[in-house]
Design brief:
The structure holds two protein chains of two kinds. In chain A, α2 runs parallel beside α4. By secondary structure, chain A is α+β, with helices and mostly antiparallel strands. Helix content of chain A is 27%, strand content 32%. The longest helix of chain A has 18 residues. Chain B has a single domain, classed as Orthogonal Bundle (MetI-like fold), CATH 1.10.3720. Helices cover 75% and strands 0% of the residues of chain B. Chain B has 13 helices and no strands. In chain B, α2 packs across α13. The chains are: A alpha+beta, B mainly alpha. The interface between A and B is medium-sized, with 31 and 24 residues.
Chain lengths: 355, 294
């Protein structure tokens, strides 16, 4: 498919992050490896302080590349100025110009380039992102979703060859999130611009990205596709991110009692702990490999009743199948659940070799 | 688990209610302060008959003194814009050794009695000092000239511009600047098209404060330029700033004239501030209220 951007066809771009390292005060990032071509999207995952923003700012040229290379279509741009990189960096909070109107924001990159067709292109971009009626407002007078659209229109006005977006879905309501997902998908599919996003939201990350990298305290823990990420979570953050509710820290398990359940979890644990694949409650005793806990809470959820059990001093979230026979469990009751060794995932370095 | 206990609920409920006694306290305290501002003005105007105020307005010496005061304070504000704004930027954007020493130094002219500032400047340009010879040679004699007034005014009032511009530059979100860079603007362009427009309002507010402080200065001027002899841009008869002029009237026991001249100058100052506020409203100043605040 021919990539189409307002104002003309867009050059195909090919980006390679090759063992890039950088430093921010005492924080060290990297090495990070990543390759990205037209129409691809990468989600950068990690808990706060993992180095996600540091990585994006290094890509954008605001932090020096200490080691490794950043290649754009084979050309080493590691030491280029931010304004020379043709890279649309959207920081957290969007970085809209508070002193300019929507039109003024979107026009800005074209004013810099002295484009004679700035007026027409601005109008086209406003039209495309449904901003025409808001052209003369200042960003402070826009809703979160409208501000997002201004940010993306302004980024496109600079004809970037890569969009790098820090937390695009932050502070948006459900509907605005969905709309933004559509816009971002369109960017990569229609405009052919590769996209790198940082996000905390798994549903959105999976709806947008082809591949994922996971950062942890500045190190790259994981790099690969969605299935790898789902099947073999590398650490506690990723495990929770991809939907494991029962994630246990190794230190906490070691400090726990000698209860058989704790000991069983510890046997399956990696250097950082273990994730227990979503266990189901079982109605009767006598089922092999079943455990017992005391119901602490029971709440409806889209996937069925979600019950929290105390097992020894650990909390375990289990689901009640829709076909649950008999009466629903209540707080204080005992309940059995199923969990065998295949449901355990080691976390920490070497986790991907599995138990 | 039990629900929230009644005492907690009551305490919560009370937090959201502004009691009538609390409101009354606010009115009494704020009102007292406003009275402290207003009553001296009322007293001034009461003491000076309208005819005296009109006479003061027509008095050549009074006009001369007011003109000198406004002129000198205007130059002091310009000097602040040129010298103090860059220092504010430096303090806002750079981390360097001795930064807090510089910040303390900037605050010093504000906290020490201005007589001391005047005294320090006096010894600096004392006849026989190298700076005395230099300032005379380049045509900026300081002692008892309008340049002396400008010098004192600039030293005691520029700190307000330094501080205001430092705060304004600090308040410009670094991520907005990074956006501009990423969109293709170099550092210089980013400064001119993003940093300055956003910081401008605060800087102008600082310059207004600087101007107000310069106009009201007397302590340092009493020492360095008690009388203003012709020289530099001033070619009239020997005069003084309006503050010194009024001080002299008071010293001579001419209370009615002191009140009349003060009243007249108050009207001028009030009119000037009104013009600035109206400018803000009508938009010929480079911002509108509320544009820059989220």
């Amino acid at each position: 498919m021919a990539p189409v951007a307002p104002g003309g066809p867009h050059p195909m771009s090919d980006w390679v992050v090759d063992g890039v390292e950088s430093d921010l005060d005492s924080f060290h990032l990297g090495p990070v490896d990543l390759s990205l071509r037209s129409g691809q999207a990468v989600a950068v995952l990690g808990s706060s302080g993992a180095g996600k923003t540091t990585f994006l700012r290094t890509l954008a040229g605001f932090l020096p590349v200490r080691r490794g290379r950043l290649l754009r279509d084979g050309e080493d741009i590691s030491h280029w100025m931010p304004e020379e990189r043709s890279l649309g960096y959207v920081p957290q909070g969007l970085g809209l110009f508070p002193h300019r109107t929507v039109v003024g924001n979107v026009r800005y990159p074209m004013e810099l380039r002295g484009r004679v067709d700035a007026k027409a292109r601005t109008e086209a971009l406003l039209e495309r992102f449904d901003l025409t009626a808001l052209g003369h407002r200042h960003p402070a007078r826009l809703s979160g979703g409208e501000q997002q659209r201004v940010a993306i229109a302004r980024a496109l006005a600079a004809e970037p060859e890569l969009i790098v977006w820090d937390e695009p879905w932050q502070a948006l309501d459900v509907e605005a999130r969905r709309e933004l997902g559509v816009v971002l998908t369109e960017l990569r599919e229609t405009d052919g611009i590769p996209v790198v996003v940082v996000t905390h939201d798994p549903a959105l990350a999976f709806s947008l990205a082809d591949s994922f990298i996971v950062l942890d305290r500045g190190r790259m823990r994981f790099s690969g596709g969605a299935n790898d990420l789902l099947d073999r979570p590398s650490d506690a953050f990723v495990a929770r991110f991809v939907g494991y509710e029962n994630v246990y820290d190794r230190a906490a398990l070691e400090d726990g009692t000698d209860h058989p359940f704790t000991a069983w979890l510890l046997r399956g644990a990696g250097p950082e702990g273990v994730a227990l694949g979503n266990p189901e409650a079982v109605p009767t005793t006598g089922v092999p490999s079943s455990w017992e806990g005391v119901v602490r809470s029971a709440r409806p959820s889209p996937e069925g009743l979600r019950v929290e059990l105390a097992v020894d001093d650990l909390m375990v979230a289990v689901r009640l199948p829709r076909s649950w026979p008999g009466k629903l469990p209540t707080v204080g009751e005992r309940l059995r659940f199923n969990a065998d060794a295949t449901a355990l995932h080691r976390l920490g370095p070497g986790a991907r070799t599995g138990p | 688990m039990s629900g929230p206990s009644p005492p907690t609920a009551t305490r919560r409920g009370r937090r959201w209610r502004t009691g009538p006694s609390w409101l009354a306290l606010q009115i009494v305290l704020s009102g007292s302060l406003l009275l402290l501002f207003l009553l001296p003005i009322v007293a001034l105007f009461t003491y000076a008959p309208v005819s005296r105020i009109v006479a003061a307005a027509e008095n050549v010496q009074v006009r001369e003194a007011i003109w000198v005061t406004l002129y000198a304070s205007g130059i002091a504000v310009l000097a602040s814009a040129v010298l103090a704004v860059p220092l504010g930027y430096l303090l806002a954007r750079r981390r360097f050794f001795g930064r807090s020493v510089i910040e303390s130094l900037v605050g010093l002219p504000v906290v020490v009695p201005h007589l001391m500032v005047g005294l320090g400047l006096f010894f600096l340009v004392l006849p026989g000092s190298p700076l005395y010879a230099f300032t005379n040679a380049v045509g900026f004699p300081v002692y008892d000239t309008i340049w002396g007034v400008v010098l004192v005014m600039a030293v005691v009032s520029a700190p307000y511009t330094v501080l205001a511009s430092q705060l304004s530059f600090e308040a410009v979100d670094g991520r907005v600047l990074e956006s501009a860079r990423s969109l293709g603007a170099g550092p210089g362009t980013t400064f001119l098209t993003v940093t300055m427009p956003i910081a401008l309002r605060g800087i102008v507010a600082g310059l207004l404060l600087t101007w107000a402080r310069a106009v009201s200065e007397i302590g340092g001027i009493l020492i360095l330029a008690y009388a203003i002899y012709p020289g530099g841009p001033y070619n009239g008869p020997v005069t003084s700033t309006i503050s010194v002029y009024i001080y002299n009237l008071f010293q001579q026991g001419d209370l009615a004239d002191a009140a009349a001249v003060s009243s007249f100058f108050l009207l001028i100052a009030f009119a000037l501030f009104l013009v600035v506020r109206l400018g803000e409203r009508t938009g010929w100043l480079p911002w509108r209220r509320g544009d820059l605040t989220p």
